[in-house]
User: Fold these one by one.
Assistant:
Number 1:
Amino acid sequence: MSAVFRTVLIGLVIVLSGVSAAWAHPAPFSYLDVVFKDGGIEGTLVVHVIDVAHELGVPPEKVMESGFAEAQQKRIEEILAARLYLQGDRRLSFEWQGIELMREEQAIRLRYRIKDVNVGALTIDTNLFPYDQLHQTFINVYDEGQLRQQVIFNAETGAHTYYRGTTQGAIEVMKTFIPSGTHHILIGPDHILFLIGLLLLGGSWGALVRIVTAFTIGHSITLSLAALDIVTPPPSIIEPAIALSIVFVGADNLVRGDGRDLRAWVALVFGLVHGFGFANVLREFGLPREALGWSLFSFNFGVEIGQLMVVLLVSSLLAAIRRRDQLLGSRVAFAGSIVVIAAGTYWFVQRVFFPVGA
């Protein structure tokens, strides 16, 4: 290779590197402000010219030319609006108010407004530039003149719901978290089996009410403590402890004598353990900080609904069996306690020695 050709090649590489550096994508970010104001929503969307250029199929410097962004405004708005999902009682439509170049930031800012948004909750979802898996969209939600929530969306982020601090917002929280709490207790075989173990020996309705109330008090305390990040023991401790509580209840049914009914105390103590289990689910579900009290109350209320459904069904069935045949009722209680012990032991071994994800 001649010295002249080598010199030209090196110079070309330097020039191309300079061009690349000038239009490199230093920050693959977009910024969306959502501002509740005057019965609607208004705000801005800031996107980098590299991303806009990719979507339009033109060089980045073309986007920064005077008049180009304005000429392509409608196309840019259509591309972005299709990937911005905002929903209240319906999917919300953007009314774009203008576009401007931010030359120093190498970005474009679009203003928008959404009219007549009288909702208690706003669901947001976006993957603004799917071609770039590293792209992130920072969203700020302002309500009553204050920054209420900040969310970061990337290619893997699911939809997020913002609950407003209004009566409508509280209703939306309850509509979401009450069914969630009920669903969790009904699909949680360990929680259900613990309750069944407490009910197997029967008793008066007064005794059953005391048991259920004690369990409610116990799990409500720790659910709140864990959800507020005051006390947060790891699932590796809580899940085996829940299994042991089931074993204990079954064993207590077999060994306790007449006149020594400690089930209410057992329900209270182990309710504290089960509450941490409920909190783990609630944390994964996503606890809205702007509606913390309502979400905690609603989830717990849903748990109580599911719990009462189980209690009424199981206690009524057991009472009916005892009325028909007292001996059969005793045998059902004995066999049921054996099943409770076996299931609790199985879950304990599984959770200690074969934990999911280990």
Number 2:
Amino acid sequence: MADPIARFRRWFAQAQAAGIEQPEAMAVATVDGSARPAVRMVLLKQVDRDGFVFYTNARSRKGRELAATPRAALVFHWGRLGKQVRVEGRTREVSAAEADAYWASRPRASQLAALASEQSAPLATRAQLLATWRALARRYRGAPVPRPAHWTGYRVIPDAIEFWTHRDHRLHDRELFTRARRGWRQTRLQP
């Protein structure tokens, strides 16, 4: 039986080997309580048998939307390779231990930025954000930057993964994998 996670890893490795800038960049779509969609770019930080992981502020718009409706859709597009991958599934927060481990791997300046930003909240001026960042840099000089409790990761547990390959005359290849009771069911789709 075909394994879409293994295929994703192969395609991702091809994107890396091709020198594509930020092959880990993905669009993530969520919906609010009125089913209004929102999409934004984030970075994939881990993929394994359990799903696709990204990190963000749980108080951000996407964090609030995922709390209310724990489902998301992802898209990876590697235009130079003529490939894209779509993922749809339910979401859940990663464990505190996973979030801590990833937080510890981040550059210090990025840790400070996550601590300084109330992501998605209105901001009077950019100078205000930079002043907060500088104050936090002074406060934690010589000390570890603590992970805020509201800064966490989300795992998208796929129900469906579609692989799209560009072909001439817009006769693209599309293969859809849907989770079955045991493993995955594979279906070819019209372009």
